[in-house]
Design brief:
The structure is a single chain. Helices cover about 45% and strands about 20% of the residues. The chain has four helices and four strands. β3 and β4 form a beta hairpin.
């Protein structure tokens, strides 16, 4: 299995490195954004290993890279739609 990508409940999960490449940032910058609540929530997949749902990252970019709290509110509102 590719350590950069994994599949959990049919949802593709991506690493900080993949996000960094997508955004033309460093991996360290992605972790700094996480620490400061400036990226969508991540998923713990093992001992000290985190990934982000690809669909969340795509929404987060579509929503102009909002902070984590705003992302959660918007996603909850989307999930509540009929």
């Amino acid at each position: 299995m590719n350590p950069q990508l994994t599949d959990l409940n049919n949802e593709k999960l991506i690493s900080a490195q993949v996000i960094a490449e997508k955004l033309s940032l460093s991996r360290k910058a992605v972790y700094t954004m996480k620490r400061n609540g400036m990226i969508c929530p991540c998923v713990n997949v093992g001992r000290g290993t985190i990934r982000w749902r690809q669909s969340d990252i795509e929404m987060w970019i579509l929503w102009d890279c909002c902070d984590e709290a705003t992302f959660k509110l918007r996603k909850d509102a989307e999930d509540d739609r009929p």
